[in-house]
Fold this protein.
Amino acid sequence: MNSFIYLWLVALLPLCGASPAISAPRLLDHNISSHAQSPREVAAQLLDLCTGQPVNSNPTNIPSGETKAQRTGTNTQVAYLTIVNGCNQDFEFLGANQWQMKNWDGQWVTIPAGESAQFDINFAQGLFVKDSDTGGEAYFQIKNTNKKFHVSTGYVSSMSPKLRARISYDGIGTKDTPQGTMFDLGFPTRSNGNTLQWVLTGSESYGYWSSANPPVAYLHAMLDVIGERKLKYVTMIGSHDAGMSEIDGSTAFSTWQNTQTQWLDVYGQLVRGSRWFDVRPCLGNSGKHMTCHYSVSSNSAVGSNGLEVDEIIAQINKFMDEYPGELAIIDLNNESGFDTDRRTPEQSYNRLTDDQWRPIWQKWRDGIKKPCKGFGGAARLDDLTMNQLIGDGQGCVITLFRSIPATEDASKGFYSYGKLNAYNRYAETDDYAKMRADQLSKLQQNRKLGKEGDSGTNDGFFLLSWTMTLGVNDIVTPLADRAAIAQSSLFWSAYHEFTPFSYPNVIYVDFVGQPYLLDQGKSQVDYLKQTGGHLTALAMAVNLQIASQNCYVGGGKI
């Protein structure tokens, strides 16, 4: 291999990583082996930590699904549909019918409360198949209620592609979607089988939310349930490399395919549910305070600049004004803290000096209009309740500085990262199965939510890093494609593993809100239209259904 190309490949490998340093009832705990064996395959009998009584094993009749959830190389229009039951009652399967649908009959099952299931949406196509005659229906009812919905597939002449998958709210109205709505799930492409997702969470007494149009201010919307829970018991969405929604200056060999990590800017990420932001400042573009994504060694530097720091602060302030009552957490870190305006003699970059860092972190300290101020006396910020943080209806922003020569100022919501007892370790692999096994194993080993103070309890703030990096196995597939694969599986293979006693605080992803692979180069207006609230609804399901079953986390129930 040409040595120049070799250096480029080596430089790219760690480019996209985060910091390594820093059913009902469901299973309490189980191990994820190297081949990611599911408890659907091996049922276990465990104890409920709250009652000390045996609990039933997870259901074994749910279809095993595809953890990778991607098909390639086909000429037919196919997808998977994952239905997430975030309610306190089962989704009882009532019956199905189909016309020219493959694998339709026999796959549908009742989806237990707090579970999810993946189904096959496969349209028969061919020379003698008339698309307008194609369709399928599968009917469900929420147990012990009169609420019904059904999956509908068929030909819609006004849309492209014309064969669609939709959810009919024929027998249910939710807080976000009126009864009678036919909600179109979109469709990837004719040859790409990434999953479609639909989430329903809530109860008869609480009401229902769905992923069709979940509340933008979703933490505030759930305060009646999560208000008295500590931050360490609350789940939210997080953005990896949040500032890299655009490329504004690059080195050789850095492209949007291997460097860009988000479609939406920070405002758009907030709208689509992200509440934790990995922000990596640097100097670039002739002395500007930028956010960056770089891989730097002693004799090379490859990467790009993204949004300006001032832009991100303004976008956060705009969102907090438009959607009061929310919490946002900024992880302001030194991952790409380089002076990218000047190369060293060895063609690398130097780390920012204290003097170069000072105006950057001071901007963050002084620029946030609604800081979470006055908590300097708290030993752990994640021990604060949501009512303490956002119960005033105004909401606030926590800024945590990590490996930066800054000074804490609680009066401006500017705290050391050590104030949050966070576990944040990514898998550092380009292999989906290894990433999944790594992250779920770390979750189960480092997140055990029992009684506070008990020897077996491990209740630190946990980030589930559902991201893949560039690696030697595949340096061609864009990060956006990898993110589509990873996000597709969250709703089945990850959600299934969350239990009332082991679930993450942050579901940490690339390309927030991407329902499946999107095109590069669109406007922010277009990306807001093309992205959805399915991640928001997933986080709500964890908070409302799964966490509420744990007697130790506090708060209300649905």
Notes: Residues 327 and 396 are 5 Å apart (CA to CA). Confidence is low (pLDDT under 50) at residues 1-45.
